[in-house]
Amino acid sequence: MKITKFYLLILLFFITGCSQDTAIPSATAEVYAMDTVMNLTAYGDNAQVAIDQAEADLLALEAQISRTREGSEIYLLNQTGTSTLSDTAVELLRRSINYGALTGGAFSCTIAPVMDVWGFTTDTMAVPSEAVLSQAMALVDDTGVVIDGNAVTLGAGQAIDLGGIGKGYAAQLVADIFTAQNISNAMVSLGGNVYVLGGRTDGDPWRIGVQDPNNLSGYAGVLSMYTGFAVTSGGYQRFFEENGVTYHHIIDPSTGYSANAGLLSVTIVSPDDGTLCDALSTALYVMGEEAAIAFWRSGVVPFEMILLTEDGRAVVSSGLHDTFIAEEGYIYDPIS
Ligand code: ADP
Ligand code: MG
């Protein structure tokens, strides 16, 4: 049995030029939190204050919602099955359950027991036996989570995993800090969860490379954006191989196995909702092209998307037709 573990931290990355205005004060930080590397750059008179606060708040958020962090709110909830959570944790839980309902169960924050039996939270990932998997699958049911104000109770044996939504919320937290500190331009990447603000200091938009899942050192296309959130999910981010089969960390809650719906990655873009981007990038990856397009067209929640398909297309929703340029190797497939 061969187990390969990869932590690919760059899912969306910045293509920087050299003409940035150096007259504006700037500050940067590299933070390791939520199991990923986070890079932050801000421009403005309060850049250092903003970056310092963002760093502190990111670490505090991790301490609150990471289910593997002993003593975190989610850790304690999972241990005891009932507890009173902070407003932040309750909001994330509510939004997770809501996205689960909207996506026909493609997103499920009660996926934790299944993640555990695959070993994705540990260093030893392996295919579970059918018996072990079906036991864990019986616990995946968002309707078992009862929320009453800030008091949360789980069904017997259930556990919560906010890994599919937490970094998007974190990006939003950073955005709010930057706004409060009058930051004029910024780029932030929290392990594939990108937030940009105000374009580059030379007036050009930020250029965000969408990683090519088939060639991880290259990109499949470039997204040009002044302000907004862009989040990518893909099975190539964390995976292992067993008996020649590749298994990855985005689980289809209807099967308990790695999602396998014909997509290489999903990038979700929103002007103002990073949390939405994170949850939907995971959910639409599970749903596959047809269901993802139907969901986008339904307009239930507003967002834009880029789907990279296994057959080599970049499916781009109408709001991004002018902002996403596909590289050679991907056939541009615009939808409206
Ligand atoms: P990453 O966290 O690697 O950037 P995602 O945002 O797609 O990627 O989140 C994947 C994480 O979400 C997994 O590591 C796991 O914690 C959790 N997860 C896996 N499958 C699902 C699912 N179907 N619904 C909700 N969360 C999921
Ligand atoms: Mg996600």
Extended strand count: 18
Encode the helix/strand succession as letters: EEEHHEHHHEEHEEEEEEEEHHEEEE
The radius of gyration is 19 Å
Find the structural class using helix and strand composition.
alpha+beta
Describe the structure.
It contains 8 helices and 18 strands. Helix 3 (87-102) packs parallel to helix 7 (274-287), helix 4 packs antiparallel against helix 5 (130-137) and helix 6 (166-180) runs antiparallel to helix 7. Helix content is 29%, strand content 29%. The strands form 4 sheets. It has a 9-stranded mixed sheet. It has a 4-stranded antiparallel sheet with strand order 1-9-10-17, with no helix packed on it. 47% of the residues are buried. Residues 107-109, 111, 115, 120, 161, 163-164, 167, 191-192, 233, 237-238, 249-251, 253, 278, 281-282, 286 line the site of adenosine-5'-diphosphate.
